[in-house]
Write a structure and sequence with these properties.
heterodimer, A: 664 residues, alpha/beta, 9-stranded mixed beta sheet, 6-stranded mixed beta sheet, 30 strands, B: 303 residues, two-stranded antiparallel ribbon, 10 strands, 39% helix, 25% strand, elongated
Chain lengths: 664, 303
């Protein structure tokens, strides 16, 4: 609770006044010599318990009356929670989640969560007397100072975006700002709808945040303005696959797969049209959604044979969230799935190149360049989408080239050298190195990530047969990696390293039968490698489908032009808004990320855990509610005072005298 | 009344003169030593016929009723009621609680006046009067005598006695019942601050000894009303522990306890036949005594 006149709270010691007066009254007693002590003793014995309780209640009522008066006079502000705050903060940092889910509008014609948050923050913070106003939003991700809260909230940049917010990163940015500018007491206001996608509760950044905040000597307080989970019938549409196929006559076909999702728990049937637009020509199909999701597989749209490259979009009628009603796509002729297999071991190299050469898509050609590690110098990485490397990690020169390759979107998949070739190699790549082999009787995979990445379940929901994998020998991976599959010995079997420079995968064993049954089992290794090859192949094509918020356009906006998309978005924020962009031969479709369509939210207990050890308060609002989240509540305390005085009067009211005299 | 008695503060000649007009009667037969105005359980020589009795050798022949002999040819002796004097035993509570008095007289002073007047009236009509001052025990005791000189001694005793110490009223009344010879008028002057059920046994003991028991229950208006405003420290006049109380907190319960006590006491005195008089100190003692005497005068004599 905060107060507009906090100095009035200095009067709180006056609460002791009733006690002092009571003690003085007790001290000013009269003395009376008395004969009828037997009745006095009896009366005293009968009344002792009740009298003490009554006296205590009277004292409490008097104290409550004084407290109510003082608190009413200090003009308390209600914010839906109880906390303690001193005076106004030196710096107020507003952290705003601009992710697509914040654009949800539960009531038709009402306000979105984002608009509501802005209005409520403005109303609330206008009474705040902060020396400095700082904004960090989920798109810019940098702290920007404003001279007033009005200028901050009315900033034209604060519109909805299509990129997923990274809340821990935003809070770390706030912490970084505090560290760099050393302000006094700081209030951090975070407005978000607690989506799991934005909060990323499993991120290690939360640990860093907690530790950083605890180290600051000044008071830092987090205020969370969160929004109620409104289960509206919001449907999201996305294109899961688009490919161009040759037709029989003058027309070719565009084959689209689409996925429609809505929140779990809504099961009523809905029929609505999907509008498909390809290079300006529109068509429509009718679908019926009965469950929480619907996949429209291989819908064919006829296109002109000369149209080898282009863009399009699919859209559904407006619902409570407009940001997920349209999805852009670009298409081109199939890109060859080009990969290079450089192996120190012939047997491993043969297996890996065999797997890489069998394309899962009959329309896409697979090209595999097979060679040894020494042949890396002669390899043209510009024509390769995925590099499969078996042997000691690359030397320094090779590392630089491979890093450039990863930076442009290529993928690298590393397998360990054979035991005798490992020797005392100290080479590392992206902070990861091989550090010796371990032998097992038969190690199994205990855990793996089935929700995403290389080992994700299939679209139809079937899990890969990872339980069938047995490992006899595995190299130890040293370094900070994210394990995708972990052996029963706690050693990672598949892992990935992701940084700003790109993404690389590591497998800690070899496919030979003396190492594991990855080759004889076949499925797991095939799927993992082909998924990596698919990701890498995208970097070679002229068209790409990327998630909003990726740094693909960063620093190079001038060479790109907008083909389709919202015209209101600033060019500096193109990479955060959906649309189609082109630059010479390149076409790019930007859409919200896949996890944005999942309506999972973090729970209150998770929130408690994330902010454990940090001073924070939470107030829950709902979209469209523009009443201030903080308002003066002195009337409540005034009512408390009146109530306390009334109760005190009731208890002190002299009792009706006994009508019948004892001597009658 | 001699010159010495005029100096006693508890005697008012005018009141005594007015009270002298009403005789003090006993409600039960008394066993006196001399002839008096009170009924005796024995036959005597008064003018009031009692009964006929068969002649037995040795009877005084002068009491033979010759007319009865003429009618029945049998010898009958005619008997008459005997009149005797009474022994008035004043039991005067001198415990500390008797020193209480809200305004005006204390209970002790009031009881002094009642005792002195009763003693005077008794001696004046030829009855013997004795005095027992009681507190924790019998503090002092004067045997019942009927001479005017004894009255002076009794007044001296009343004058010298001061209210002090705690009361053991119940045990003392039992002791009085045992030590006083049969058939006396025992007048108790006390605040009777004891458990009513314990007092019942005392009264029954006194009745068993064929005493005529009268009790003056002295109460002050302040004790009844208990009308205090400020926190008060009540000091026990009998030396017990003091009690600190907020009067407004306990007034109701105090009155409740007092009412219960008074109702119990009233029931007990009715059941035990005690001539009970509740006396408020703001009432003139002359009225109290006048009512006491007239009530007794109106009451039937029982032999």
């Amino acid at each position: 609770m905060s107060f507009l006149q906090p100095w009035m709270l200095w009067g709180l010691p006056l609460l002791a006044l009733p006690i002092i007066i009571h003690l003085i009254n007790q001290w000013r007693y009269q003395t009376k010599k008395w004969g009828a002590m037997m009745f006095l003793l009896a009366a005293n014995r009968m009344a002792r318990g009740y009298a003490k309780l009554r006296q205590l209640l009277i004292l409490l009522a008097r104290m409550a009356a004084i407290a109510g008066l003082l608190l009413a006079a200090s003009r308390p502000l209600s914010s839906g929670w109880l906390g303690l705050a001193g005076g106004p903060p030196d710096t107020t940092i507003v952290v705003l989640d601009r992710s697509p889910s914040m654009q949800e509008r539960p009531d038709a014609g009402g306000l979105t969560k984002l608009e509501t948050a802005k209005i409520q923050l403005k109303q609330t913070l206008q009474s705040w007397k902060s020396n400095r106003w700082v904004l960090i939003d989920s798109v810019q991700r940098k702290a920007k100072e404003f001279h007033s809260i009005d200028a901050l909230i009315d900033s034209p940049e604060l519109t909805g975006s299509d990129s997923t917010a990274n809340v821990p990163e935003l809070l770390l940015e706030a912490v970084e700002y505090i560290r760099a500018n050393r302000p006094g007491s700081t209030e951090i206001w975070l407005a978000s709808d607690l989506r799991q996608a934005d909060w990323n509760s499993g991120s290690a950044q939360w640990n860093v945040l907690r530790e950083s905040v605890k180290q600051f000597p000044q008071s830092i307080r987090f205020n969370l303005l969160t929004f109620e989970n409104t289960r509206t019938d919001n449907i999201a549409i996305r294109v899961t696959d688009v490919r161009r196929e040759s037709g029989l006559q003058q027309q070719d076909e565009l084959v689209l797969s689409m996925l429609l999702t809505r929140p779990e728990g809504i099961s009523d049937s809905r029929t609505f049209p999907i509008q498909i637009e390809v290079q300006g020509s529109r068509s429509e199909i009718e679908v019926e959604l009965k469950a929480s999701s619907l996949e429209v597989k291989d819908h064919r749209v006829a296109i002109d044979r000369n149209l080898t490259r282009g863009w399009g979009s699919v859209s559904i009628p407006a619902d409570s969230n407009l940001s997920d009603n349209r999805f852009y796509f670009v298409f081109d002729e199939p890109v060859p799935r080009s990969s290079a297999v450089l192996a120190q071991s012939d047997s491993a190299g043969n297996i890996l190149s065999l797997i890489a050469s069998i394309s899962p898509d009959s329309t896409a050609k697979s090209e595999v360049q097979r060679g040894t590690l020494e042949q890396f110098r002669g390899l043209d990485l510009d024509s390769v989408g995925t590099l499969i490397w078996q042997g000691p990690l690359p030397s320094q020169n090779a590392s630089v080239e491979i890093t450039d390759f990863l930076r442009r979107g290529g993928r690298a998949f590393f397998f360990p050298p054979e035991p005798e070739a490992l020797g005392n190699s100290t080479l590392d790549f992206m902070g990861v190195k091989w550090s010796g082999w371990r032998e097992f009787d038969q190690a199994y995979i205990s855990t793996w990530r089935g929700d995403q990445d290389l080992l994700a379940t299939t679209r139809s929901g079937m899990a890969l047969p990872l339980n069938d994998i047995t490992v006899l020998r595995a190299a130890t991976i040293e370094g900070n990696v994210t394990s995708l599959a972990t052996l029963s010995t706690n050693d990672p079997l598949f892992a990935k390293v992701q940084s700003n420079e790109g993404l690389a995968y590591f497998c800690s064993t070899l496919p030979g039968s003396s190492y594991s049954n990855l080759a004889s089992n076949g499925i797991v290794l095939y799927v993992a490698l082909q998924r990596a090859i698919s990701e890498g192949a995208e970097s070679l094509g002229n068209t790409r489908l990327i998630a909003a918020g990726s740094s693909f356009l960063d620093g190079d906006e001038t060479s790109w032009s907008r083909v389709a998309g919202s015209k209101e978005s600033l060019s500096t924020e193109w990479s955060h808004h959906q649309g189609v962009f082109s630059a010479s031969e390149k076409w790019l479709a930007i859409n919200r990320s896949e996890i944005e369509d999942q309506s999972l939210e973090i729970t209150a207990s998770q929130l408690e855990e994330l902010f454990s050890g940090i001073s924070y308060a939470r107030v829950t609002s709902s979209a469209g509610r523009v009443a201030g989240i903080v308002r003066e509540i002195w009337r409540i305390f005034l009512a408390l005072m009146i109530g306390a005085l009334f109760a005190e009067a009731l208890m002190c009211f002299p009792k009706k005298m006994t009508a019948r005299s004892p001597v009658a | 009344m001699n010159a010495e008695s005029k100096s006693r503060t508890f005697l008012d000649p005018h009141i005594l003169a007015r009270l002298s007009a009403v005789p003090m009667a006993a409600r039960r037969p008394m066993l006196g030593q001399v002839s008096g105005r009170h009924a005796s359980p024995h036959r005597g020589a008064s003018v009031e016929f009692a009964e006929y009795r068969k002649y037995v050798p040795g009877d005084d022949l002068r009491r033979l009723d010759w007319r009865a002999y003429g009618r029945s040819d049998r010898f009958y002796v005619k008997e008459f009621e005997a009149d005797t004097n009474l022994r008035l035993c004043l039991v005067f509570d001198t415990s500390g609680s008797m020193g209480f008095g809200g305004s005006g007289l204390t209970k002790f002073e009031y009881a002094q006046r009642l005792s002195a007047a009763l003693a005077y009236l008794a001696v004046q009509q030829g009855d013997a009067v004795g005095l027992s001052c009681i507190a924790k025990g019998i503090i002092s005791s004067l045997p019942a005598k009927r001479s005017p000189a004894h009255l002076s001694v009794l007044f001296d005793q009343l004058e010298q006695t001061k209210p002090h110490g705690e009361t053991q009223l119940v045990s003392v009344l039992h002791e009085v019942a045992e030590t006083t010879r049969q058939r006396a008028l025992i007048v108790i002057l006390s605040d009777l601050f004891a458990e009513p059920e314990e007092l019942r046994s005392c009264f029954e003991h006194l009745r068993f000894r064929k005493h005529d028991v009268a009790a003056f229950h002295l109460l002050d208006r302040e004790e009844i009303d208990f009308d205090f405003r400020r926190p008060t420290r009540f000091i026990d006049l009998e030396g017990g522990p003091a009690i600190f109380a907020e009067p407004s907190e306990i007034a109701d319960r105090y009155r409740q306890a007092l009412t219960q006590y008074l109702e119990s006491l009233k029931r007990i005195v009715l059941e035990t036949g005690v001539d009970y008089h509740r006396v408020m100190l703001d009432r003139p003692y002359e009225d109290v005594l006048m009512q006491f005497l007239t009530d007794r005068a109106r009451g039937k004599r029982r032999r």
